[in-house]
Amino acid sequence: MQIRRAFAVAALLATGACGSEGRTEFLSLGTAGTGGIYYPLGGAIASRLSVADSARQYTAEVSGGSVENVNRVASGQMDLAMAIAVTMYQAYNGEGDFQQPVTGLRAIAPLYPNLTHILVPASSDILTVADFAGQRVSVGAAGSGTEQLARHVLEAYGLTYDDIDPQYLSFAESSAALRDGAIDGAIISVGYPAAAVLEASTTGDIRLLAVEGEVLQGMLEDHPYYNDGEIPAGAYPGVEEAVPTLAVMNWVFSLESLDGDVVRTALNIFENDRVSLEQVHDMAKQIDLGRLSSAPIPLHSAAEQWLTER
């Protein structure tokens, strides 16, 4: 299995592993729920930061996901966090869930692309997202980037939450609800292979719905932070053909007020010590700092300097 949960738990307890002697600061890194990739990967990032930065101790925090992470970073409850590009863009510009722009928000580093997994039972009559009308659909945990993306996907197929019975479930809860027949479908924005999707595909027969054609092209034109993507054949049990879908990049972000040393340390880890992150999840192999130039919001000044000197 791609996700080494034991390593993730150890990373989340990095304070005990690395020791706190001589540390002058204790910083938190926001992740998400336990059924996705943020949780184990964020734990590994916090652990590596604690090793590389002798002045600070870093701890990864479980959270509701991207929206909660932005709100908590903006309010000073977290120091840095992970989020998808759509959430960062909307927060910086005061759109969507954000009534006021968070103008101090800054991008630190790109991570990996999320692919939109749209799950239905294999025996279901649901063939496209348009068929979700009148159905019980998990749209992600409240305060998550998945929930923001789910709204856009539904809108692209002519639906709103008024047309479905929305269920605000985490990835793991969505998997269990599909298995138990408590929901008719789920929208999950996550890198592959994701623990929750693996669980759903191994404990029950599921299908993945595509996002493609004119619908996909329309979404790419309307939302500059989205890309086209593909869930590869064989990514999950029963997925025998590649599934075209919507993709969105994940980022590490903070406020501009975060010390530049933290930003430079993080970037150096992503550039030179990525193997330690790949041991936790294969998606770390897709970290490409060349994507810094396509950030959805302004870069932290230390990241700009790092990119210039790279």
Spell out the key features of this protein.
D-Maltodextrin-Binding Protein, domain 2; 310 residues; single chain; alpha/beta; 37% helix
Could you describe the 3D structure shown?
The chain has helices at 5-12, 14-18, 38-52, 66-74, 85-93, 145-156, 171-180, 195-203, 213-222, 260-272, 274-278, 301-309; strands spanning 25-30, 56-61, 80-84, 105-121, 136-138, 165-167, 185-190, 206-208, 226-231, 243-255. It is of the alpha/beta class and 310 residues long. It folds into 2 domains: 5-111 and 250-309, 3-Layer(aba) Sandwich (D-Maltodextrin-Binding Protein, domain 2), CATH 3.40.190; 114-248, 3-Layer(aba) Sandwich (D-Maltodextrin-Binding Protein, domain 2), CATH 3.40.190.10. It is globular.
Give a short overview.
The protein has 310 residues and is an alpha/beta fold.
Classify the fold: give the CATH topology of the largest domain: D-Maltodextrin-Binding Protein, domain 2
Secondary-structure content class = alpha/beta
The CATH C-level name of the largest domain is Alpha Beta
Rg over C-alpha atoms, rounded to the nearest angstrom: 19 Å
- The geometry reads as globular
Hey, roughly how much beta strand do the residues contain? 15-25%
What's the total number of strands? 10
- What is the level-2 CATH architecture name of the largest domain? 3-Layer(aba) Sandwich
Helix and strand succession?
A: HHEHEHEHEEHEHEHEHEEHHH
Structurally, the number of domains stands at 2
Helix content: 25-40%
User: How far from one another are the termini?
Assistant: 35 Å
Mean pLDDT: 91
